[in-house]
Amino acid sequence: MKNQLLILSTALFFSACSSSSTQETTVDPEEVVNNSTEWSIPIEDVLDGGPGRDGIPALENPSFVNADQSAILLDSDLVIGYKNGNDVRAYQHIVLDWHEIVNDNIGSESLAVVYCPLTGTGIGWNRIIDGKETSFGVSGLLYQTNLVPFDRATKSNWSQLLNEAVNGSLIGKKAELITLFETDWKTWKTMYPETKILNLNTGFSRTYGVYPYVDYRTNNDFFIFPTPKDDRLPSKERVLAILDGEKAKAYRFSDFKTTNLINDSFNGKFYLVVGNENFMMAYKLSAAQDADNFEYVFNGNSGTVVQGDDGTQYDIFGSVVSGPGTNALEPATALMGYWFSFPAFYDTELYSN
After folding, report:
1. What angle do CA 265, 178, 211 make, to 5 degrees?
2. Does a structural domain hold residue 331?
3. What sign does the CA torsion over 177, 244, 316, 198 have?
4. Which domain holds residue 152?
5. Which of 349, 342, 309 is nearest to 325 (CA)?
6. Residue 216: inside a domain, yes or no?
7. Fewer Cβ within 10 Å of end Cβ, the chain: N or C?
8. How crowded is residue 264: how many other Cβ atoms within 10 Å of its Cβ?
């Protein structure tokens, strides 16, 4: 374990050594905590992650390359996908592991891809807060092992997994969510061959493709910071969790061995959950929709995933691809992550078929 921590500390040290001219001087996280008077989370559980504010540099309006220029990316590597009309982009984990936040502009959309490598959770935030565009950076703080971003406009600190500001002038403010989709690179580029992907020429010297946290993502007993554990599943098993208020419901890849569609209810709402060995996605159904009327049609050759009984076909983001229907499926408030991270924040139940 000492060797693991030494390697980790070295990786974080080099992460902190380079900064962008668009970012501010590194600030000691302990000063941030001690100089702030009000937190909506227990201040004693807000920990110093090590690098300091902006020590892990977020990317600002990065460049992208075509899928055939993905260089070191393996088919099995995870990416977080986003689609806005004909603009399709992928943010690969091998870059997010080193930068955690990407502030991007896609048409009229101001998107922050916020990824925490220690909880394996990725979320999309609209960077328009109270009518003004801001950007997010890495504060250097952690809560329950989870990333605490800060917005540059007000220096308020946010909880990624709670999706809200937990300190500063915006305390209690929720970010508007933007739907993202996580899967492996092979599946994503098959669904969307026109996709672009983050250029590895980011302006920072990083060993992209080398995981900076040793065997953290596969070792269920290796934790760098204290956090609650829940032994119902292996700690680092990747699950999909639907979030609703203070509750969550988690789904496993193994739930889709005999079926690709799950018709489920949670917290008084109804959901259609779609999955296979490579991805999971959930949709919130309206009172007029019946999950039994949908058919799984994904064949590995396009982004079309489900079909309604009227012949309308939908892609993974719920958009209508073809057919007579005009109403999209509404993606649920849900995200992928390591199992341990969800019970640490939410009253979490497990799906059982």
Report:
1. 95
2. yes
3. positive
4. 2-198
5. 309
6. no
7. N
8. 19
The total number of residues written for the chain in this structure: 353
Alpha carbon 328 to its chain's center: 22
Q: Which of 346, 331, 338 is nearest to 180 (CA)?
A: 331
User: Is there a single domain that holds both residue 37 and residue 171?
Assistant: yes
3-class DSSP assignment, residue 93:
helix
Q: For residue 193, how many other CB atoms are within 10 A of its CB?
A: 13
Supply the pTM of this predicted model: 0.91
Cα–Cα separations (whole angstroms), residue 88 to 66, 83, 197, 275 = 10, 4, 9, 21
Residue 322 lies in a domain: yes
Nearest-CA neighbor of 129 among 101, 158, 100, 87?
Answer: 158
Amino acid sitting at position 137: G
- Residue 66, domain member (yes or no): yes
Q: Are residues 278 and 154 in the same domain?
A: no
CA–CA distance from 230 to each of 162, 242, 255, 344 (Å)?
18, 17, 19, 8
Answer yes or no: do 12 and 123 share one domain: yes
Place of tokens 């989870």: 146
Pair 165, 51 in one domain: yes
- Tell me the per-residue pLDDT of 202-220, one tens digit each, with 9 for 90 and over: 999 999 999 999 999 999 9
Instruction: Give me the CATH number covering residue 319.
Output: 2.102.10
Do 188 and 283 lie in one domain? The reply is: no
Residue 258 burial (10 A CB sphere; 0-12, 13-18, 19+): exposed
CB 192 within 8 A of CB 81: yes
Return the structure tokens found at 63: 């460049």
Tens-place pLDDT, residues 286-338? 888 887 899 999 998 888 999 999 999 999 999 999 999 999 999 999 999 99
Amino acid at the residue 149? P
| Residue indicated by tokens 């007029």 | 288
Q: Edge-to-edge, what's the strand order for the sheet holding 330-331?
A: 261-266, 269-275, 280-284, 330-331
37 & 112 share domain:
yes
